[in-house]
Write the structure tokens for this entry.
Amino acid sequence: MTNQAIQVLQGPYITNTYGNGIQCQGPTLNITPYITGAISAQKPFEDYYDTPVYDMRDLTGDFDDDGNPKGDGAPDSPGDILWLQPTRTGQKDNYNLSIGVSATWSRPQDKKLQQLCKEAAAANIAMMNQLSANKRLDFEIARLKNCGNLLKEGISFHPKSPYYKICADVVVQNVTVVKPHVHSIPSTKASDLGPPISIGKP
């Protein structure tokens, strides 16, 4: 005899973690399909076997009061086989196949605590998104400031540089920069200017 059993272990609630120690547990559905099988067989397989029928006759060995032979209580030919009788063995192979599904459904009893946990998770996600946006804004402003100062000084990446795109969208406006330079002014004589010109009524 073979005993088979299916054991269903109750798993823990599914826990979601959102950071800052916020953990929410929700309803859990466990579905466990299973297939079991067993085969038992005997080798070699025999449907029938021969059973010897022994000669148990007791006809001689003694005499009755009239002098007729009779049995003496012991077989006349012990061990002799009269014939072989076919006997069914009843031997058979056994096959067993079991298919099934086990399911368990678990859910917390206090729905209010579940709702509070969901609200805390949503608030924490919104805070993390805002912190990420703030860091992105700080990065963009720092990039704008540094690129603007470099452009005012005439410093920039070469257009073919892979880093040119870092400051490609930065525009510097309302700034006039005159580089230091020197002009030479030639001297002239008064005679080279010609006669004086009078302005006014004659």
